[in-house]
Amino acid sequence: MANFKFSLENKYQKARAGSIETFHGKIKTPVFMPVGTLGSVKAIFQRDLEKLGIEIILANTYHLMLRPGDRLVKELGGLHKFINWNRPILTDSGGYQVWSLSKLRKINEHGINFVSHIDGKRIELTPESAIQIQERLNSDISMVLDECTEYPASFSRAEESMELSLRWANRCKNTFTSREGFGLFGIIQGGMFETLRKKCSEKLSKIGFDGFALGGLSVGESHEEMIKTIDFSLENIDEDKPRYLMGVGRPIDIFSAVERGIDMFDCVLPTRFGRNGRAFTSKGEINLRNAIYLKDDSPLDEGLDLYVSQNFSKSYIHHLVKNNEILACMILSLHNIAFYKKMMCDIRESIINKKFYELKKRYSENHEKYKRT
Question: For residue 168, what are the CA distances in angstroms to 111, 297, 299, 328?
Fold first, then answer.
């Protein structure tokens, strides 16, 4: 597919630093993509994302097709113009969101039939329509429609789901319009089973995509299970294609995945934490609701060069959080996204300078609370 290009620039063992060329600009990897489900990264202006150096955001096909509607977005000039964002956008296919509405959907060979959570309208999402919707949105990176396998799942259930996703992936590839600077990613499924993951990645590679994502993770499995699954999912994936771990975003998970060759991440965690009074800081994760911050006049995080991080005390933010003030969401969400941006820049630099494991050790020591229980 023309002129959608991934360049592998540096490598330290399996950890990779590279860049992705898209129609709306270059993305340096490894990269964390803030989630803007409805075309909005919650509580943050697009201008402030640009000031942080955010190069790509993620939007949600399922939600945008329901409201305001993909045809309206196209009529108004595409998603970039609609939300006033001139940098790359990745849209997921909507499959995960429909999967999460288990009581409202039915899956068959043709696609997914579901009931809108907004107005109860019956809707069908097929591999063809999922791609067509993303093209109307004008996404730089589109995702194939897949079925996210529930956890835990038996081998036979995971195999059945994976084979369906493969057939859908082929239909997505046949529907996708090759355009300069636009790419389509396949999604590797197969539950937690090594043979299924290897088979899926091999078949997706033969179909041919611009990048490959690992789906069906961060759905309840342990950190150790997730890491093992990443290892055997990547065996048949070309080195010259970007690898995207979908929906995974705790710092310890990101470091472990980068160590194994993952390039792209997304997660709602930074902004969700921000809306719930929690912050990622250079000294660890903190909950500003806790009474220990009532009289703490120190800045939120002196280690982060950002106005909201250095100019508001923990005591003041504690006050805002306890009173459910909107400003608390704005301060903490922006701060958390800035923390993630700095972390990814640190990771990229550490790969280039061959100091990745030193950085990982430092973050691990400072952020023990990030580790899953």
Answer: 8, 55, 50, 43
Q: Which of 140, 146, 263, 266 is catalytic?
A: 266
Given the residues 70, 92, 253, 263, select the one marked as catalytic.
92
By percentage, how much of the chain surpasses pLDDT 70? 97
Least confident of 119-123, 220-224, 262-266, 368-372: 368-372
Domain covering 29-92+129-267: architecture? Alpha-Beta Barrel (3.20)
CATH 3.20.20.105 location in the chain: 29-92+129-267
Tell me the torsion sign for CA atoms 36, 79, 28, 184.
positive
**Strand 112-115 to strand 105-107: parallel, antiparallel, or no bridges (unpaired)?**
antiparallel
Question: What is d(CA 11, CA 289) in angstroms, rounded to the nearest whole number?
Answer: 41
Question: Which residues make beta-bridge pairs with 106?
Answer: 113
pLDDT level of residue 3 (50, 70, 90 thresholds): confident
Is 266 a catalytic site residue? yes
DSSP H helical ranges for 181-250: 194-207, 223-233
Q: CB–CB of 262/244 below 8 Å?
A: yes
Residue with tokens 């097929």: 126
Before 242, cis peptide (omega within 30)?
no
**Is 92 known to be catalytic?**
yes
Q: What is the pTM of this model?
A: 0.96
Give the tokens for residue 161.
């789901």
Contact present, 255 and 30 (Cβ < 8 Å): no
Cα–Cα separations (whole angstroms), residue 281 to 18, 288, 347 = 26, 12, 16
Return the H-helix or E-strand segment holding 159.
Answer: helix 155-175
Counting Cα atoms < 13 Å in the Cβ hemisphere of 198 gives 7
Tally: H helices and E strands in the chain: 15, 16
Contact 270, 337 (CB under 8 A): yes
Beta bridge partners, 159, equal none
